[in-house]
Design brief:
Layout lengths: L2 H9 L3 H19 L1 H9 L4 H4 L5 E4 L7 H9 L3 E5 L5 H18 L2 E6 L2 E5 L10 H10 L4
Parallel strand pairs: 1-2
Antiparallel strand pairs: 2-4, 3-4
Helix pairs in contact: 1-2, 5-6
Length: 146
Amino acid sequence: MGIGSKLKTFFLLDEDEVEYEEERYQEQENEEKSPVKQQNQKQNVVSLQSVQQSSKVMILEPRVYAEAQEIADHLKNRKSIVVNLQRIQHDQAKRIVDFLSGTVYAIGGDIQRIGSNIFLCTPDNVEVSGNISEFLQEEENRNTRW
């Protein structure tokens, strides 16, 4: 029993109306099965490999405070950065850490001290797990710069 006859008996429709409903139902089925529609659906599918971008960790060693803006620009471009502040004056190093802390806060990232005068700055799309505080405590006993 076709859909048209079911509709006819249920609604007591005229023959013309039933034929129209049957044609419309068949057209919908044909559209769903057509290779053109299937091909259009495949074009909307995106490969995960094309979406995944390689992540870079940059290692920067600023010599003056003015280079802090360059480091912040890299963070805004969602790159992780290891900042080595061992070759810069202590007061300028503190200013750079303050500036980067504000930048990291603004983008929802994270800043962690990973060594003596070395900091890891990450954007919000990078999660850092683990802890190296044992090594930091030993190093702090030797060098109390921070």
